[in-house]
Amino acid sequence: MEEKRALVEKRLKVEEREQKREKKLKERIMKNEEKAKRLEEKKAKSLKGKHISHTDISGNEQNFEILQIFPDARKYKTTYTTKYRNRKVWKKPDLQEIKSVIPGVVTSFTVKEGDHVQKGEELMIYEAMKMQNIILAPFDGTVEKILVKEREKLAKGVIMIYLTSDAKFETDEDTTSISPDLSE
Amino acid sequence: MSLLSRKISELQERTAKAVQGGGASAIAKQIAMGKLPARERINQLLDPGSFYEYDLFIEHEARGFGMEGKDLAGDGVVIGTGTINGKPVAIYAQDFTVAGGSLGMMHARKITKIMDYALRMRIPLIGINDSGGARIQEGVNSLAGYGEIFFRNTMASGVIPQLSVILGPCAGGAVYSPALTDYVFVVDKISKMFITGPEVIKSVLGEEIDMEALGGARVHSEITGNAHFFAHSEAECFRQIKTLLDYIPAHNEARCEKGKVADPDKKFKIDKIVPVDPTKPYDVRDVIRAVTDSSEFFEVQEMWAANIVIGYGRINGRTVGFVANQPLVLAGVLDCDSSDKAARFIRYCDAFEIPIVTLEDMPGYLPGVDQEHAGVIRHGAKLLYAYSEATVPKVTVILRKAYGGGYIAMNSRHLRADFVFAWPTAEIAVMGPEGAANIIFRKEIMEAEDPEAMRKQKVEEYKQKFANPYVAAAKGYIDSVIEPVDTRKFLIHSLEVSLNKEVKRPKKKHGIPPF
């Protein structure tokens, strides 16, 4: 009897933990979504410009947007396609973000937050396409933050670890300068 | 009862059983999903009473897994021939009520039989897809079946029109048959096409998405460009098929049937549609309707890459393929998708001897990291390749802007257009006046007391000198500067004189287009 109760309690606890985890995950997803939405709105605003209306041949009124394809040149009144509006605006990647390059599952972490690692040291193991991939430190640095949990399923491009580089890292939009870590 | 009548009644019994497909309950389910049964689809699409079915009594080849005892009517597919608007066609329709329309060896053999027939008789082939995919129990035999279909699709490509109608799921390897055919028809909420379904994507990648958002009709009509015609119902879809078959010839050596010659609708005043200001938008389809017979225009891929318009119309009774920049959308720029879209259409017209009329008004190629990284060089090159390669009559009308690489790409004289006409509003130059002035007069502008005023002056100077059709006309790059109201007249005449056009090309197996 006692044993059974203990078992039930244990199971309940596990369940509770699971639920908590899920809730947290959901919250995080919601947060990300909100962020994405805000970004989207901002992008839409910056792209939109002025709306101009115009009546077509059948007398239907239409709204237009502005497209300028050369600097200081003509501004064309036109409409955007969904694909154009949703296009990814390119950003210079922050190499300190260690991202998942393919979808997979986090197997285990070799480091914890605050650890200092040298270039080539093991950070974590990440299972993807049935392979155990060892993720190595791309440069000397400190593990600033671990953003995912063990056994978590990840899509492509999710930030797993933020590794602050010892050498100063360029993160601005200047594409011409190459940081010392990259040029070697 | 005589022996003969007994034999006949046996045939009638067998037929009655076979045409029931998966039975009443399966048919009820199909209808509940908003879909028609396979034979009903064929009957609605073809001329009434014109359908003749073959291979009704085919039996499946599945061995093991408890399949031996099972009876699959016609092995899940209906094949036959009939007529549409009196013209013969070959058709197959997968029957979802029989084992989910799954493709086994005999199912595939029926399809390949009708494909061979269509190619031999040189009549259009219509395939109605509604299938859960390969019949797993038949293993590699069903894969072999798909392969046989793909090979025939490829062999028939450019010889007979091949139309794929997606009226249900079409998943996995099965999607490659439609992809290899000329035109794909989809119906909202009914058509679903993808390589891997939502369940696999979720379990492997953790991405959650439903079928509609992954590979529904809208997605393929607007985002991927896999579909060419979008309809709200099966009935509308069948009407689209009939209209398309009315425009295109039965095979690559046949000429299109001549339509009724009629003037365009007076509503489309060609000299009033295009604003003189090159930055103002308008719907280029109105210009097309202002030159076609009865102002009829049948657009292809209306929703995808809408910055270029493609489709069919008739000029003086003769079918013409139109390619036109659309200033209404993205200012009519060329980009990856629009180049891809136009290039394939041009190759279709060329394969089936349909003359091409190009209406040009575009500011250039769309700049952007996403475009460059998506391979705009390779995709843009497709357009150059397709126009250069095409030997059908090619006529270009430059309405307004024709700048830079875009001018060359849009069926210019240099890619062997037969006739190039320009409106007086045309601006044919290496780039827009603003950009050009900034580069050419950079020094003057920098050194001027009032650089902005100088810039304006230089832009105006450049505009006066180069933003017109006469510089190109002076070199013979365009044949005539024409008044907008004369456009139809010029098109009729130029198509008439190029009726027997012949081009000799160097011997080769085939070119290597930038696929």
Task: Describe what you observe in this structure.
The complex is a heterodimer of chains A (184) and B (515). Chain A contains three helices and eleven strands; from the N terminus they run αβββαββββββββα. Chain A has helices at residues 2-48, 82-85, 180-183; strands at 52-55, 61-67, 76-78, 97-99, 104-109, 116-117, 122-128, 131-136, 141-146, 153-154, 159-165. In chain A, a hairpin with a 5-residue loop joins strand 1 (52-55) and strand 2 (61-67). Chain A starts with a helix and ends with a helix. Residues 45-51 and 172-184 of chain A have low confidence and may be disordered. By secondary structure, chain B is an alpha/beta fold. Helix content of chain B is 40%, strand content 17%. Chain B contains 21 helices and 17 strands. In chain B, the strands form three sheets. In chain B, strands 10, 11, 12, 13, 14, 15, 16 and 17 form an eight-stranded mixed beta sheet that branches. Chain B has a seven-stranded mixed beta sheet with strand order 1-2-3-4-5-7-9, with helices on both faces. Chain B has a two-stranded parallel sheet with strand order 6-8. In chain B, helix 4 packs parallel to helix 5, helix 13 packs parallel to helix 15 (376-389) and helix 17 (433-440) packs across helix 19 (451-466). The chains are: A alpha+beta (184), B alpha/beta (515). Chain A binds chain B through residues 54, 56-57, 64, 67, 69-84, 87-90, 103, 153-156, and chain B through 204-207, 222-223, 267-268, 273, 278-283, 286, 305-307, 327-333, 337, 363-364, 366-370, 373, 431-432, 434-435, 438, 455.
